[in-house]
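Run log, item B.
One chain of 285 residues. Sequence copied directly from the ordering sheet:
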Amino acid sequence: MTTSESAGVVFDGSALGEWTDAERFSVTAERIAEYAAATNDPIEAHRSGQVAPPVFAVVPVFTSMAPAALSVAPVELLMKLVHGEQDFVFHRPIVAGDDLVVRAKPIGYVGKPNGSTVVIYAETRDAAGELVNEQWMTAFFRKVDAGPGEGEQAPDHRITDADRAGDPAARVTAHIDEDQTFRYSPASGDPMPIHLDDEIARMAGLPGIINHGLCTMAFTSWAALTELAGGDTARLRRLAVRFAKPVLPGQDITTTFWRTAPNVYAFETEAAGALAITDGRVEFN
């Protein structure tokens, strides 16, 4: 068994590359519409339940992600876990009526003094076995150092100063509702108490209930689609972000996009004068 230990914390590298059991997920129009409403998505094909919003792709794999991460990180670190990064590659949109098969595996981990990351790779296939999407989720364990680590890291999507140098291609401001987390939690299947219980959130070292990072990411996805792709979800090829700072219910967020190549944009999202999402990348067909 390969392990990495720092300050009494042991991460187990022997689980790297081990798939979780495959799980099946039947997509309904009602579930799609609930997710769209929970993320204030204005795109009619999403709100009607015909086509899933891009970030809905995490819903079928959500229950596989934490077990994959905790096969490497000690389970007692669960309350220190926050979502560090998310990267989707879309082969086609999810649509109502899809019968999906999902699985996930940890592919690498690394420690730093301010926290350690475990990278999870997940794939979603349709009933015929064709890839629908791929995902890289980086789980960040706050204030834990797992040492040098091993395995693979997630694909790069960093923003450079050169990316920000030009005039913005689009800028979108949206409001995170006071009840956003209470709507997003059942729609996404994410019951983490830091999004629902103010006391537990404060015990975890947060300022209070925080918006789900994936909910904030969903806001950026519909901003990108409406401003840069005419609302056509089928054009979206990749969507990747790093979560830099929590967004609180009641805050406004502003997402700025810069064109860096044909059909490729870098973006960042601000809330209360600070970056909430950075290293954003969106690619279209």
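Observations after the first pass:
- The first strand starts at residue 3 and ends at 6.
- The helical segments are 29-38, 44-47, 58-70, 161-164, 180-188, 198-203, 213-228.
Flagged for discussion on Thursday.
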